[in-house]
Amino acid sequence: MKLLDTVVLVEALNADDKHHRKASTHLHSLIENPTVMVPSTTLIEFDLLMKARDYSQEERRQTWLELSPRLSKAKIAIPTPTSMGEACLLEREGMGYFDALITALAVELRAEVITDDKAISSRVTSSW
């Protein structure tokens, strides 16, 4: 199983980003590869990033509508109480909140994380 980190969504949807093409390929893998999933926490972090970057409610809505065909319920990985508890330990060690959540979920699911984030990559198998 592979989990997409928030950076994939951010860079895939920003045509000016230097990693846009690669991130778009990873995002498209949601359709092509049944073992690629998106943690629900990735979706929440992405929405918070859009809000922080002053996307209007309509821009956020349009972004979610654009992503919807790729993100069926079957493609969403949901954290468990166990992974949430483990994320607390990772935070205590200095990892950021959302990085800790995806890392803990990846450990629990024995999943690879598609990311270029060094904090996540230092704890679990990752690729970019």
Order of helices and strands: EHHEHHEHHEHE
Structural class determined from secondary elements = alpha/beta
Number of strands: 5
Task: Note the main sheet.
Answer: 5 strands, parallel
The percentage of residues in β strands lies in 5-15%
CATH class: Alpha Beta
- Structurally, the number of domains stands at 1
The number of helical runs is: 7
Corresponding CATH architecture? 3-Layer(aba) Sandwich
Mean pLDDT: 96
Low-confidence segments, ≥5 residues, pLDDT <50?
A: none
Rounded to the nearest angstrom, the distance between the terminal CA atoms is: 15 Å
The outline comes out as globular
- What is the CATH topology? Rossmann fold
Instruction: Give the CATH H-level superfamily.
Output: 5'-nuclease
> Level of helix content?
55-70%
Provide the gyration radius in Å.
14 Å
Q: How do the strands of the widest beta sheet line up side by side?
A: 3-2-1-4-5
Secondary structure elements and pairings:
Elements: E1 2-4, H1 6-12, H2 20-32, E2 36-39, H3 40-52, H4 57-67, E3 76-77, H5 81-92, H6 97-109, E4 112-114, H7 118-121, E5 126-127
Characterization of the model:
This protein has one domain (2-127): Rossmann fold, CATH 3.40.50. Helices cover 57% and strands 11% of the residues. The protein contains 7 helices and 5 strands; from the N terminus they run E-H-H-E-H-H-E-H-H-E-H-E. Helix 5 packs across helix 6 (97-109).
